[in-house]
Amino acid sequence: MAAVLFALVAACGGGGGDGDGSGDGASSDRTFSDDNFSISFKYPGYLKRGRVTEVAESAGGEPVAQTALAIDEANAIFLAKYEVNAEVDDDNIATFAPQVDQLVQQLTGKPVSGRTTRVGDLPAIRYDDVDLNTPPQGQSRLVFLFDGAVEYLVNCQSTPEERDAITRGCDRVLTTMSRA
């Protein structure tokens, strides 16, 4: 499926973090709502909204919308929206998984196999512990969510210093995700 698009984003600007991400985040949750995205979710207050300023590696096409929730430039949850040529749903997502695997493998240079799952009420393909070339010692959890002919990519990218905080934030985003 050439229309499934993917990008790894390396940097975020505007509104860097306000601490080390300590705490559980539940008491300071914020709600993500944006006219460019038809999804919403909760995220910890230690993540600040920012804009994507650099794309280190990508495969496929350009997103129609993107944003970031960041601690700093290298540690963030990046959200991108793509329009795809096919409607993806629970009944056919398994047929698209090998093509998404191929895109992720193209970026990492390593064989990968995502697992189909659901995030909120959306079918998804998830990749855990994906090693990145940029930033150094970077790692991502990649989750491709499908809403008909719209694909959302949630890229929870971290370095060792902020891995726990990004993991907690990513868990919060994914467990509270829903169509807006």
Gist?
17% of the residues lie in helices and 47% in strands. By secondary structure, the chain is α+β, with helices and mostly antiparallel strands.
Could you characterize what this model shows?
The protein has 180 residues and is of the alpha+beta class. Helices cover 17% and strands 47% of the residues. The strands form 2 sheets. The protein has a 7-stranded antiparallel sheet with strand order 1-4-5-6-9-8-7, with helices on one face. β4 (48-59) and β5 (65-70) form a beta hairpin. The longest helix has 16 residues, at 93-108. It is globular and about 35 Å long. It starts with 5 loop residues before the first strand and ends with a strand.
Biggest sheet details: 7 strands, antiparallel
Proportion of β residues?
Answer: over 45%
Helix share, percent: 10-25%
* Radius of gyration over all CA atoms, rounded: 15 Å
Overall SS class = alpha+beta
Average of per-residue pLDDT values:
82
Note the run of SSEs as H and E. EEEEEEHEEEHE
The low-confidence parts are 1-25
Strand order within the widest sheet?
1-4-5-6-9-8-7
Question: How many helical stretches?
Answer: 2
- N/C terminus separation: 26 Å
Q: Compute the number of strand runs.
A: 10
